# Entry
Amino acid sequence: MAKKDLDTRFSKFGTVSFTSITKTNDFVSHLEQGKVMGTQCKGCGLKFFPPRADCYQCLSSDMEWFEVGGKGKLLTFSKLQYGPVGFEGDLPYAIALADFGDCKVFGRLAPDIPESEIQVGMEVVAAPNTLPNGQLNYVFKKA
Ligand SMILES: [Zn+2]
# Structure
């Protein structure tokens, strides 16, 4: 029996990959190319981040990629003193939600932002990031 080829690109994403395969694996290839991308439904125009392969609004699976570009505004953040299983080595780090206009993006704040400068309303950009273990993620940097 021929072994089925698995598209395991998503295993390169994040500190711990809980998801090995998704229909939106191109997300990781885009990160490798320096772009943080979401998906937009060609049917109704709704934008998704994290990227989805299927639209819950109009049920279309006809999606295209868009870059999470420009400046976002920090909506909220939280500094973690305790990490979930697998993330203990990354502590301390801050998780955040940023508003990019037509989509809200959840992610981490770049570790080099001084704590005194982190405030709700500050402008951020989403940028790909390589973790010490070689895995990829994305972080919010000061705009
Ligand atoms: Zn749609």
